[in-house]
Amino acid sequence: MKSLFGIRRDERLLALLAILFFVALNALVVAKYYGLFTPVSDNKWQLFVHNFHLSGFDPITYAVLTKWTAGYNVYRHPLLALFMFLPYLLNCGLTWITGINCALFIVAAINVFCSLYALLFIHRIFTEVIGLHRSEAGVLSALFFSFAYVLVSSIAPDHFIISMMLLLMVLYLTGLHIKKDQPMSLTETILCFFLTAGVSLNNGLKVFLAALFSNGRKFFRPRFFLLAVLLPAALIWIIGKTEYAQLVWPKEQAANKERKAKAEAKQKKKFQMQLKQGVDSATIIAKQKKQRLVSHRLKKLGKPIEPNGFLSWTDISTSRWQSAVENLFGESIQLHRDHLLEDTLRNRPIIVHYKHAWHYVLEAFIVLLFLGGIWAGRRNKFLWLSLSFFGLDLIIHLGLGFGLNEVYIMTAHWTYVIPIAIAFLLKALAPLPRRCLTILLAVMALGLWVWNIPLIVKFLS
Fold first, then answer.
1. Cβ–Cβ < 8 Å for 81, 68
2. Fewer CB near the last or first residue (10 Å), C or N of the chain?
3. Which of 110, 121, 200, 196 is nearest to 155 (CA)?
4. CB neighbours of 89 closer than 8 A, spacing ≥ 6?
5. Taking a C-beta distance cutoff of 8 angstroms, is the pair 332, 415 a contact?
6. What is the pLDDT of residues 239-270, one digit of tens each?
7. Among positive and negative, which fits the CA dihedral 267, 270, 272, 275?
8. Given CA atoms 259, 261, 262, 263 in this order, what sign does their dihedral have?
């Protein structure tokens, strides 16, 4: 743990600059919402949900730190509320001392911590696992943190920056194992799984992929497979079901009952008023059915495989090509000026186009560098491990359509694969083109910062 989270002598300047940068970014969020979110009151959930706007990110963590509850979807984030219990206790103590709700500051501190170590882990991947020079590693690290939704994830009160740090930690550890030809231990695999899957369940599968690439055939040995794969997967599913049954279901039932009663009372009052005005009852009922149908259609941003259950989150109607161009490799890396950081569940269209052709040229160039890196490192096991992480997200988002309407908010889960692939391209080049490409990547990182950061500042000002 000391070697993993200790900041080394040659990392101190990088860490200092990173801390200053991420503190400044998170200070913008604190300044914007200080007046709204710091006063102590009882109705915090509605206050956070109705007033916080940052793309499709949820302010649930603010609410959980204010009044602890299993506020996250426990099947998708089975341990996240439990991980937030200690920060909640810290907020209780700070609130008692200061007289204000300090959830804003605690979330900002978590974001700075996770952003810092995500940067350090990917920098170590470039230097220790792939073998780049420190200057090249610095340029690629800067490029990664110039991507739009990597920056936005670093200030959002959501789980994505935590997930990104943990996934890069897993990649770094696994990369060292692969390089030394050592298998991941049973304890290491279990701990990594519970940390990553506890924050976001699908990311737990990436730990199993890491163990498979690291351990090879040993992964399928009965003892390892039972204790490191089957048992933890079963335990985390049981924990999720127990949380739902004990903490979520009773509240959902009570809330649904209250919501239904209010809706029926409102509808009855409206019905009686229309009858008094002489409107025919059959006409009123027909209009109500039409309004419910329209409301239902407006809520669906894409046609799901099934209308109910887990598959209701899928999307089989939204264009994959447009989503890939404008959102997956577009908005994730370069913000759209139109509908800047708006939410698709409120007023942002699913597909927004750039106004200038240079955005598409830059996007195409980044994709070409990515593909070139894959070709250059096609025989490297670590690159294929990184690509397997990306492939899992492609299956989930572009294949099944989970979260396809706002796929860019999942940027932190996969975009690290782009600079990792480019690192293999750099390593394969001769000295002169290698220096030229490094300079070009530095210019690209600077250009993306110049584009993305002012837009983020504008949105938060």
1. yes
2. N
3. 110
4. none
5. yes
6. 888 888 887 777 767 667 766 766 666 766 66
7. negative
8. positive
Average pLDDT, the chain: 89
- Spatial CB neighbours of 359, under 8 Å, sequence gap ≥ 6: 330, 334
Strand partners, 54: 56
Distance in angstroms (rounded) separating the CA atoms of residues 272 and 378:
71
**Type of residue found at 393:** D
Measured between alpha carbons, how far apart are the two ends of the chain, in Å?
Answer: 39
Say how far residue 306 (Cα) sits from the centre of its chain: 25
Which residue, among 160, 213, 123, 209, has the nearest Cα to 414 in the 3D structure? 160
Cα gap 407→62, rounded to integer Å: 23
Helix axis angle for 417-428 and 357-376, nearest 10°, is 60
Alpha-carbon distance 52 to 37, whole Å? Answer: 9
φ, ψ dihedrals at 457, nearest 5° = -60, -40
Please give the Cα distance from 24 to 154 (Å, whole number): 11
* The model's pTM: 0.89
Contacts of 361 (CB under 8 A, 6+ apart): none
Instruction: Name the nearest CA neighbour of 202 among 58, 430, 413, 442.
Output: 413
Nearest CA among 216, 218, 172 for reference residue 386: 172
